[in-house]
Amino acid sequence: MKRFALVALVAALLFSVVSSASATELKVRGHLDVYGMWSANLNDFDSDSADGDNYMTTQRMRTYFDYVANENLKAVLGLEMDNVWGDNTDNVGGDWGTDGKGNIEVKHAYLDFTLPDTTVNIQAGLQYIALPGVFGNPVFDDDAAGITVSAQINDMFGVAVGYSRGVDKDYNTQSAAGVDKDDVDMAFIAAPVTMDGFSVTPYFAYGWLGQNAFANSTGEIELANGAAVAMTDDTTLWVLGANAELTMFDPLTFAADLIYGQSDWEVNGDDVDSDGWYAALAASYKFDMLTATLFSTYFTGMDDDDDDLGMIPQLAEGWGITPYIGGVRAFGTTYDTFSGVDNAVWATGLKLAKITFIEKLSHDLTIAYAQGTSDEDAGMDFDEEDSAWEVYLVNKYMIYENLAAINELGFFAPEFDDSDEDNSYFATVGFQYKF
After folding, report:
1. Most buried of 120, 208, 235, 354, CB within 10 angstroms?
2. Taken in order 126, 132, 133, 139, is the CA torsion positive or negative?
3. Residue 2 is inside which H or E element, if any?
4. Three-state DSSP class for residue 13
5. How far apart are the C-alpha atoms of 196 and 247, rounded to whole Å?
6. The model's pTM
């Protein structure tokens, strides 16, 4: 009798687990990129200097698990695994044995639900948060810990608000607990307006940077040039921007960004302000065999002024045009930009996308020019005396509906005022599977 009772109890538990699991549907999505890259002068632009390995094989896998209870409730877990073949630095598991224990990253982990009988959607946790932008947003565009709330008021108007914490050193094991003024926070509100053939999203973002948020054990912030400064008060910043799209003349379309922002700092007891703006404009025309886009972007650069830096505030920028200008690639990659040219620039160019002559084979060609906008004496690596040309070609062949063979060809010709640079090249061949 006891044996029968035990069997019945185990069966009941198994039935309850199965019933509970069946109430939640698991959906899996993501991508896996594997590619080899050949390069010359990729980062130093000096043919006479050792460039390290000129060949490497890299892979990245991102997998997202959607735990769906119903159309109004789900939880999302996103994992990322990066490997460089042959590399076991920090246990990434790219060498023989492939048993790295530190190469699985939690990219997303958030709750996503809609309040009953409303259009109010809430996402809370580690998620992707981005202010709108034609080429990504130069102020905030990144994975972040936070909460976002959005609602569609009617067919024309919507609203979205959000909050994210970027730094909290009380819970950083590298700093002592109990540090005051140690946080960095950002909040925003956006109000998308959609009409027939036209849409615009104005937004406002505000940030708080604690005095000790980036300080080391001595209370100073170490700068890239080796100098150290001390923030002697909290810092605030704000940006006001708008992203617009005009489609009423389709196949001719337009997209634009305009952002203005200010930040107030107190460094070593002195007030230092920074205010600047950013603009982008892209005009596209869709032909039968390709889509042509003329584009231009502009950042105000750093001034040679101790009291006003002259740059737009940036918290977690996600702006980019090409592999060298901003860091945009056809493959998922562990890199940002090869050249470091990602803000305080004027850039313009032409992109010919989805060029198709043969079924399943397409080509994207981008030709771009960039010039610095910072004062020559402001101490920026890429200033108004520096410029560069870039040509970037992507060839893609669809082996299956979700599997592509991809080849990248990149060329970058820098002209720096204070030194002689050699041109940079790179080429890749690999596969991209989206599931």
Report:
1. 235
2. negative
3. helix 2-22
4. helix
5. 8
6. 0.89
